Amino acid sequence: LEVFTWSNIIKNELSRLNGSQGSNNRTDSITYHVEFIDDDQANRLLELRSKVTQYKGHPVLLFVFHDITEARENQRLRENDDYKDHLLASISHELKTPLNCTLGLLEEAVVDSAISESAKEAYIQPSLASAQMLDFFVRDIIDLGNLRKNMIRLNYSSFNIRTVLNDLMRTFGHLSNMKKILLRVEFSEDIPEKVWGEPERLKQILVNLVSNAFKFTTSGIITFRVDLDLSRYSLNFTVSDTGVGMNPTHLFGLREVLMMAGENRQVMNIRSSKGVCLGLSIAQALSIALGSQGINVESEEGQGSTFSFSIPLQVEILQSSPSLEKRVEDCCSNDINCNCKEILVVDDNDYNVFVIKTKLKKLGFQVHSAANGKIAIDFLTNCFLESRNVCQGTNCQSIRLIFMDVDMPILNGIDTTKILISMMKSKQMITIPIIGCSAFDSPEDINMALAAGMQDYISKPVTEEKLNRILKAYNVS
Fold first, then answer.
1. What DSSP state is assigned to residue 267?
2. How far apart are CA 327 and CA 224, in angstroms?
3. Average of pLDDT values for 433-453?
4. Given this model, what pLDDT does residue 3 score?
5. Helices (DSSP H) in 111-239: which residue ranges?
6. How far from 5 is each of 40, 55, 238, CA to CA, in Å?
7. What is the C-alpha to C-alpha distance for residues 242 and 216, in angstroms, rounded to an integer?
8. Cis peptide before 461, with omega less than 30 degrees from 0?
9. Is the pTM of this model over 0.70?
10. CA 12 from centroid of its chain's CA atoms
């Protein structure tokens, strides 16, 4: 924003006025910005619009003044917010790339029979638990910007609630042993085997609540319980501990914090005696996004605390969402009985490729890789020429799936997908499902990928659970 002085403005405008003598034509207006100090000694920004016009046959200067101090400050704040969101997304992406590899290799090491059980218990399992906690923290960072914009992404699917509980035990098992705090998981037997919901977000809420319980508990028991409430047809989740608890003043303050977090206000200004309570505020916002009325907290100083929330229960919906069902049908209708075992991974990070290859090879797949979109297109072009895109029965060697990174050099995943979709249509080949696979997982990123022609999208780190979901959805076995 160029700021002028009064003397420069007057000099310029007098020159324009003199230049318009004898002319009946109006000249274009000019906009100036002037800084000044008001009566309260506050800096203000003035927008001045000047126009040479005619009045009773004589050229005159017309000035319009507008104080834009607040408007300019609001614009600056919006620009700062956009910059922070972009910075958070960039940092999170850089964190998730090596984290993807770390988690993948540690998961493989845990089940590797060549490694002794004592080594797994002493080194690998604690490392895996720490990496998983770091992964959840990175997700919380990513959600900061999305919470403020009310753009939390929810991916509903059928899942087993007991699997979520088992994952929770594995995540906190080592910490429980290390702190000598009993972690007890309880659930009522009448809970359906499978429900329809958002397992990843539910897990994120529970991890934050259990993590908070461990933070303020030095001895005793942390209990996590799930009950079925048939009167309201909901699942009730409770996390209680025997920790330090809170006095009435602190309890009132925390309830205020949770109320503000539920309204997406002051998410980044939440503090406690042990640092920033980022996890609790995000857990509150996510619980409301899942249909809860919010997290309730009860506590007594010296006796511990209890956090609870309820989410509406939906029994498993056997039919997939129409959009996903249609995408799966388009890709798989021509080769339902195909036994192809080849998959292409397109990613510029060698470590990410190694992790996905390792997991897929265990499942019996032959995995090809390409470091960018151009290499992938060249590879698939050769497959088309060799008719390897047409199912050939039991000994078929065609490519069944493509896992496509988004951010790559030379040719990115979005442009590569558009080219491949066009190529497959023009050659009337079977459509190969292209699955977006990236550390960028904002709603904008996912929508851009799906709009380009990708059939599905998974965020890094890539776990066996995510791979199995994709393989099952697209009839690849």
1. G
2. 38
3. 86
4. 63
5. 117-119, 125-148, 161-179, 199-215
6. 21, 27, 64
7. 9
8. yes
9. no
10. 53
Nearest to 16 by CA among 30, 2, 32: 30
pLDDT tens column, 161-202: 888 888 888 888 878 888 889 999 888 888 887 888 888 889
The amino acid present at 444, given as its one-letter code, is E
Distance of alpha carbon 202 from alpha carbon 152, whole angstroms: 13
Q: What is the CA radius of gyration of the chain?
A: 30
| Residue 380: HSE in the Cβ half-sphere, 13 Å Cα cutoff | 31
Encode pLDDT of 396-423 as tens digits: 447 889 999 998 888 999 999 999 998 8
Within 13 A of 389's CA, how many CA atoms are on the CB side?
Answer: 21
Give CA–CA dist 108/126, Å, rounded.
14
**Residue 346 has what pLDDT?**
94
Q: How far is CA 438 from CA 74, 239, 355, 464, in A?
A: 33, 33, 14, 15
The residues, any chain, with a CB within 8 Å of residue 318's CB and separated by 6 or more, are: 158
- pLDDT tens per residue across span 92-118: 777 777 787 788 878 888 877 788 888
Name the maximum alpha-carbon separation found in the chain.
99
Q: How crowded is residue 110: how many other Cβ atoms within 10 Å of its Cβ?
A: 15
Closest residue by Cα to residue 401 from 375, 425, 436:
436
- Spatial neighbors of 298 by CB under 8 A, at least 6 apart, are 305, 306, 308
At 329, give phi and psi (nearest 5°).
-60, -45
Q: What is the pLDDT of residue 241?
A: 94
Cβ atoms of residues 176 and 129 within 8 Å? no
Q: Which amino acid is at 287?
A: S
Strands 456-459 and 434-438: parallel
Q: Smallest Cα–Cα separation from 454: which of 408, 410, 405?
A: 405
List C-alpha distances in Å: 242 to 160, 183, 213. 29, 11, 9
* Cross-sheet strand order for the sheet of 58-67: 30-37, 43-55, 58-67
Could you give the percent of the chain with pLDDT greater than 90? 17
Q: pLDDT, tens digit, for every residue of 47-62? A: 888 887 878 877 788 8
**Dihedral, CA of residue 85, residue 88, residue 90 and residue 92, to nearest 10:** -140
pLDDT in tens, 220-246: 999 999 998 877 788 999 999 999 898
CA–CA distance, 349 with 214 (Å, rounded to integer):
36
What tokens were used for 7? 């003397």
